[in-house]
Fold:
Amino acid sequence: MSGSACVNEAGDRLFLAGSTEQFHWTEDAFPPLDFCVQTLKRDGLRIHPFDEHPDRDSSLRNRGLNAEVWRQWVASVIAHSELLSQVPASPADGRTDPRFLAEVAEFLRRPSSACPGSDGLRGRLDEMWAEYEPTADAWKRAITGPEGVRRMGRPADQRRRWQALQPFHSRVATIQVFLVSYPAPVVMASSPTACLIAPDRDPAAYTQQVVAAAKSLAAAA
Structure:
């Protein structure tokens, strides 16, 4: 995310300038996670809090997708996003297990590989991914760009966000915010540190979304 006068960045980690606290939060737009949400909209399956879209073709439900399977898939995709941070900058790094690199490569090619369930379910997800993937980069630029959450990254907004999160610093060392697209503002915590947020366009309301995520994660800690 863009830097500011009150926030220091290390990668996408956001810290209050001058603070010695180790607490930080991250904001990321990870297309495979957004894809998880888009599959609900395509199928029509409603899983709280993603339950404000219309019923559709049921093609995933007919192949075994339900709330339990979908939530397990989301958790696995989040875990794979963390694996990606461990991939070496140079593919020639001989210290990395080739099986690990193969797993990551397969996940990037087919996010369905992280989904439990039947081969038929994963096959249908592959078809949907083939339709979604060409738009992934444009979506990421849009949601993180000047008209997306970057417009909520002004120094004053970041300072207020940090202050609002202070009560949770001792209970949640970090908060991973994964941005997704949905017709309504939504917050879904996925412990121990991650949450999915379909962001409100108002900076103050977005801050309250991050706080709501922090409350849920702290309660589950």
In short: The longest strand covers residues 174-179. Residues 42-134 form one domain. The radius of gyration is 18 Å. The chain has seven helices and six strands.
